[in-house]
Each structure stands twice: as structure tokens, then as C-alpha cells.
Specification:
Elements lengths: L1 H24 L15 H9 L3 H18 L2 H16 L9 H18 L2 H14 L6 H18 L2 H14 L3 H17 L3 H18 L2 H17 L3 H18 L2 H17 L3 H17 L3 H17 L3 H21 L2 H130 L5 H25 L2 H5 L2 H15 L3 E7 L1 H5 L3 H22 L3 E9 L2 E8 L13 H12 L3 E6 L5 E8 L7
Parallel strand pairs: 1-2
Antiparallel strand pairs: 2-3, 3-5, 4-5
Helix pairs in contact: 1-14, 2-3, 3-4, 3-5, 4-5, 5-6, 5-7, 6-7, 6-17, 7-8, 7-9, 8-9, 9-10, 9-11, 10-11, 11-12, 11-13, 12-13, 13-14, 14-15, 15-16, 17-18, 22-23
């Protein structure tokens, strides 16, 4: 219910502001209260009347392709599943219709990709490859392979994607397939920030699509060219490309492309500090993405809007959208079928390797046949030389064996040396950890003795004097002096336990200075967003020390292992709870195989002492998000 109310509010704000944008910019942006329909009623009526399998299958495919053009994700998946169910119905001979089943997998793969369910899409394309051998169904076979390549691109596995694209370019003679392969190569180089190579492939693909008179792929390339222009800071050219796509896609009912163009126009407004226009444009795209249930697109737009709200210091809306972003991420992760897809992927890769082995074996047989033929021709000449060559060959063989033995010995020696160095480094690390623990134990002992000997003794003396106090004014002054002395000792011990920098500087300033040092010394782009600063700076100094140490541990782990380009840190106080979101776009890890290291154990120990909790969400090749909540048991506004 909360999500629905939020969406309604966003729509009301959008419609109240769109007229202003249209007047100032000479442009307009459209939201859709319902999903636009482009399927004629006559097609649905024909489908309802059809009883023959082929007639129903053809109509389902036509309707699904219309929804693919419109970008209606849920409808694509619905009609893909309907076609799949029709194909799985047994014939009188007890067989399934593999051709139509394969076509249904193409449709389901496209729908899952648009929705951001990459593992589901991979499953459909792998199953399609399995039932569509290249010898019998070459067109469908390469359609599935192109879809699989696109999944690998979206997951950031560019090496496997390029291998498939090379195969499509070299072995397929279908112009449409090769045009898409070139377009996907352009996408890979764009994501790798190689703009020169990206534009080269986009130009080749554009020429092919023009020959084929395929308009939608041309508009997709225009969106990518607009993105490249934004990266090159050529915003006028970028706006020209994207505005043309926005208008044409709306005219042609390519609604997914319409959203993509609007999203990038929002980036241009944001860069030009036209924040009100950017907010309206991005909100328009977000409403449409929510309406059409395109989860991955919702994540992309939400992230852009969070950055916009942070830029305008609207941290409340940034936090609300951050919550939406986490919910969509969790929904995508929960919808994946990783185990089943992994088994299919391994099966596919095994089949690929077996094909490669067979090809190599065939080549080897041809080579052996050629060698035998040459040996037959030259046999007479070789016999005469063999008597002389045999002793020389024996000597060369022995020398070769000696070199091989020496090479293996060198390799083993290098491995032993590496192991020794690793062992020494590990031993040194353990010594440092042990020394740190011993220093902490020694400091705890010193504090305990100080409390016991000084404060404990004074309090005991005060107790005895209080017991003997019978309205004696002289003893009263002595008690007051001892109380004052005890107070001073407690104060000195407390100040000794807390580093002076936390009492002399604002807490948010300390964190910002620390992050600036890391930012300058590394390749990562680290951003820190505290809200509200005054309440965070008013936190108890002991809590500040613990939060600072936790943040250091998280940054250290990220810099060492994550290989991330961007790190975002949000610290908020809400409902007497300190909330921290730590997110990076690094390599991620498998949570089921994660080992608890010293750094993570230290964080958990600190949080247990603070009655806090931690949640770690990570996926391989899709980054890591750490959420921490710590209750605050005092008023931070004082």
C-alpha cells in the first residue's frame, strides 16, 4: 500500500509540472496511466476462435512480436509462455513441436532481458540452443546465441560475449544477425569506455540496418550515440540525437526506447544544473518503468534520481528512493534461478568444448593424412639419412630432456620461494594482530587497575565517612573534597580513552577528510552523504569512534578486494536510529561461499556491543551493498 501511495504522489507531481517544462524548453514528456496497447482486437478474436495448433502458434507469435516492439515486458512474457505451453502439448505421435518451442524461448528471453531477469533469459537461450542445432535450424540457433551474448554483456562477462559474437559474424550469412552482432560489439566497447571502437561498430551496424529497413535498431544506436556524446561533453549533439529518438519512438510506439531517451535527456538537464527539469524528466521515465514492471530500468532511473537529490541536498527524497532501489534489487535477485541456469551454462560450455575438440581432431586427422602422404613420397630419401641422424637426434633428445628437467626445477624453486614469502607475510600479519590484541588487553588492565586503585579506594573512603557522619561539619568538607577529586579522576580517564581529534573536530568533517585522502590516493570515486549533519555531529564521542572504525574497515576491504570504480556512503539519523548504506560497483562475491575475515569479525563485534545489526547483499559482477543500523538511546538534538 505504501508503494502504491508513493507512485500516485509522484504521478500527481509530474502532471502538475509538465506544462511548465513544455513552455520553457519547447518540449514535452509523457507518462502513461495504463500500458499502451497496440494489438488490434481482431487478432485477439482470431486467437480465441482458432483451434488448430499452427494457427494459434502463429497468432501468439504475432501478438508477442507487437508487444516486443511496444516494450510491454509482462505481455511479452505472458504470450511467450502461452506459445511455450502450446508447443509442449504432445502430438498424436507423442512428440513436442521443437520449432515453435524454440521460437517461444526467443520471445521469453527478450522479455526477461527487458525486465532485468538475466538468469531467466540465460536459461531460455541455453534451452533454445540445445533444441535448435545449427545443422537443422541455423537461424534460430544464432538468434539464441545472440541473445546469450546480450545476457553476458548485461552481466559484464565481455569475454564470453565477444566469443559468441565472433562466431555469429564468421559463420552466419544472415545480414540481420550480423548487423545485431556488430551493434552488440558497439555496446561492449561503450561499456568499456572505448568510444572510438564503439562508434566504429555502431556505424557499420547502422548501414546494415538501413539496408534491411529496420527502424527500431537504428533508433537504439542513436540512443547509444547520444550517450557517447554525453560522455564527450557534447551536450548539444547528444540532445539532438535523443530528442529525435524520443519523438520518433513515441510516434512509432517504441515505448522502451522512449523511456531510454528520456532518461538520458534527464542526465543532460542534471549536468546543466537544470535540476527542476531533470527531476520532472527522470520522474516521468521512472513512472513509466514502474507501470511496465521493468525492474532493471527502475534501478537505473532510481540511481540517477538519488544522485540528483543528493546534488540538490534533498536527502529525505534521496533516502526514500534508496529504499525503493534496494527493494527492486532484492526483487531481481529473488526472481533469479541461479542453480538451474548455472547447470545449463556448464552443460552449454561443455558442449562447446566438445565441438572444439572434435574440430581439432578433424584437423589433426587431415594433418596426419598429409604427413603420411609426404612420408611415402620421401621415404626413400629419408632412409639414407636416418643412419646419420639417429645418433644426433639421440644427443638432441638427451639435451632437450636435460633442459626440460632444469626448467621444471626452476619452476618448482620459484613456487617454493613464493610460498616462503607468503608464509613470512602471513606470519608477520599474525604477529601484528597478536601485538594489537596484547596492547588492547594491556590497556584494559591499566584502566581496570586505575578504576580499582584510585576511584575504588576513594569511593570506599567516602562510604566509611558517610557511615560515621553524625552532623559533623568538619568531615563534610573532607567528603566534598574527595568527591571532587574522584570526579576529576573519572574525567581524566574518560578523556584518555577517546582520541582528541573526535572532541576537537566535527565528526562529518573527520570522515570527509579521511575519504578525500583515500580518493586522491586511489582510482576509486568515493562519495560521502551525511544527513542531517548537525545530528550526526552531535553523536556521543564513543559512538563516533566506533562508527569511524567500522567505516575504515569497510573502505579497507573495498579498496583491497572489490576492484570498484565507485563507492557511495550514506549516513542518516531517522527515528533514533543511525543508518549507514555502503555500496560499491565492484566484482562482488557469492554470499554462500563468503568467509568471515578479521575485518568483518571486528565490525560484527563492534555492532554487538552497540546493539546494532548488519546486512550484506552481494552478487558476483554486480557489486556489494552493506546496510548497518545502530539504535541511539539519547537525544542527538541537544
Amino acid at each position: 500500500m505504501k508503494d502504491k501511495v508513493y507512485k500516485i504522489i509522484v504521478v500527481i507531481v509530474l502532471f502538475s509540472s509538465l506544462f511548465i517544462v513544455g513552455q520553457e524548453q519547447g518540449d514535452s514528456y509523457k507518462t502513461f496511466g495504463v500500458i499502451p496497447q497496440g494489438v488490434k482486437d481482431s487478432l485477439h478474436q482470431q486467437l480465441n476462435r482458432a483451434t488448430d495448433f499452427k494457427d494459434r502458434a502463429k497468432l501468439l507469435k504475432i501478438i508477442a512480436e507487437i508487444h516486443i516492439k511496444l516494450g510491454n515486458t509482462d505481455s511479452i512474457i505472458y504470450y511467450g509462455n502461452s506459445l511455450k505451453e502450446e508447443a509442449l502439448n504432445k502430438t498424436p505421435e507423442g512428440l513436442t513441436n521443437a520449432l515453435w518451442l524454440s521460437r517461444s524461448y526467443v520471445i521469453l528471453g527478450k522479455g526477461s532481458l527487458q525486465k532485468g531477469l538475466y538468469d531467466d533469459a540465460m536459461e531460455y537461450y541455453l534451452q533454445g540452443i540445445e533444441i535448435s542445432p545449427v545443422e537443422k535450424k541455423p537461424l534460430l540457433h544464432y538468434q539464441h546465441k545472440l541473445g546469450l551474448a546480450l545476457v553476458y554483456i548485461e552481466k559484464g562477462v565481455y569475454k564470453d560475449a565477444m566469443k559468441i559474437l565472433d562466431e555469429c559474424l564468421n559463420k552466419s550469412d544472415d545480414l540481420e544477425l550480423t548487423a545485431f552482432a556488430k551493434k552488440y560489439y558497439g555496446d561492449i566497447y561503450l561499456q568499456k569506455d572505448d568510444l572510438v571502437e564503439s562508434k566504429k561498430y555502431y556505424k557499420e551496424a547502422m548501414l546494415d540496418f538501413k539496408k534491411l529497413k529496420l527502424e527500431k535498431p537504428q533508433l537504439k544506436i542513436q540512443v547509444s550515440l547520444g550517450t557517447i556524446a554525453i560522455l564527450e561533453n557534447d551536450f548539444d549533439n547528444a540532445y539532438k540525437h535523443l530528442k529525435e529518438v524520443k519523438n520518433k519512438s513515441l510516434e512509432k510506439k517504441y515505448y522502451d526506447l522512449h523511456i531510454a531517451a528520456v532518461l538520458r535527456i534527464g542526465h543532460i538537464y542534471s549536468h546543466n544544473k537544470q535540476y527542476e527539469e531533470a527531476q520532472i524528466v527522470l520522474s516521468t521515465a521512472y513512472v513509466n518503468a514502474v507501470q511496465w514492471n521493468q525492474l532493471e530500468l527502475q534501478k537505473t532511473i532510481a540511481k540517477s534520481m538519488i544522485a540528483l537529490y543528493v546534488e540538490t541536498e534533498d536527502y529525505k527524497n534521496a533516502y526514500n528512493l534508496m529504499t525503493q532501489y534496494e527493494e527492486v534489487s532484492s526483487q531481481i535477485i529473488n526472481n533469479q534461478k541461479r542453480k538451474e541456469v548455472k547447470e545449463l551454462e556448464i552443460k552449454y560450455q561443455t558442449a562447446q568444448k566438445e565441438n572444439e575438440i572434435l574440430t581439432l581432431q578433424e584437423e589433426q586427422l587431415l594433418k596426419e593424412s598429409e604427413i603420411k602422404r609426404q612420408k611415402t613420397i620421401k621415404n626413400a630419401f629419408l632412409i639414407g639419412f636416418l643412419v646419420v641422424l639417429i645418433p644426433i637426434i639421440a644427443l638432441l633428445y638427451m639435451y632437450y630432456q636435460k633442459l626440460q628437467a632444469q626448467s621444471q626445477l626452476n619452476v618448482k624453486q620459484e613456487e617454493i620461494n613464493r610460498q616462503k614469502v607468503a608464509s613470512l607475510i602471513k606470519g608477520q600479519e599474525l604477529k601484528l594482530v597478536k601485538a594489537s590484541i596484547e596492547a588492547q588487553d594491556e590497556e584494559r588492565g591499566r584502566i581496570a587497575r586505575e578504576l580499582h586503585d584510585s576511584i575504588g579506594g576513594n569511593l570506599a573512603a567516602i562510604k566509611l565517612q558517610m557511615n560515621n557522619l553524625n552532623d559533623k561539619a568538619a568531615i563534610k568538607d573532607a567528603i566534598v573534597n574527595q568527591l571532587d577529586e574522584t570526579y576529576q579522576q573519572v574525567r581524566e580517564i574518560s578523556h584518555n580513552l577517546i582520541p582528541s581529534k573526535f572532541s576537537q573536530n566535527a565528526f562529518t568533517t573527520l570522515i570527509s577528510e579521511y575519504i578525500d585522502k583515500l580518493d586522491k590516493a586511489s582510482d576509486q570515486d568515493i562519495t560521502f552523504n551525511p544527513y542531517p549533519k548537525d545530528k550526526i555531529n552531535a553523536l556521543d564521542e564513543n559512538l563516533q569512534v566506533e562508527v569511524f572504525n567500522i567505516l575504515q574497515e569497510l573502505l579497507t576491504n573495498t579498496l583491497k578486494h572489490a576492484k570498484a570504480k565507485n563507492v557511495e556512503i550514506h549516513v542518516n539519523i531517522h527515528n533514533k536510529t543511525l543508518q549507514m548504506l555502503f555500496e560499491d560497483n565492484g566484482v562482488g562475491f557469492d554470499k554462500e561461499k563468503m568467509r568471515t575475515g578479521i575485518g568483518l569479525q571486528n565490525i560484527k563485534s563492534r555492532l554487538e556491543a552497540l546493539q546494532g545489526n548488519i546486512n550484506i547483499d552481494s552478487t558476483i559482477n554486480r557489486g556489494t551493498a552493506v546496510t548497518i543500523e545502530i539504535p541511539i538511546n539519547y537525544d542527538t538534538s541537544n
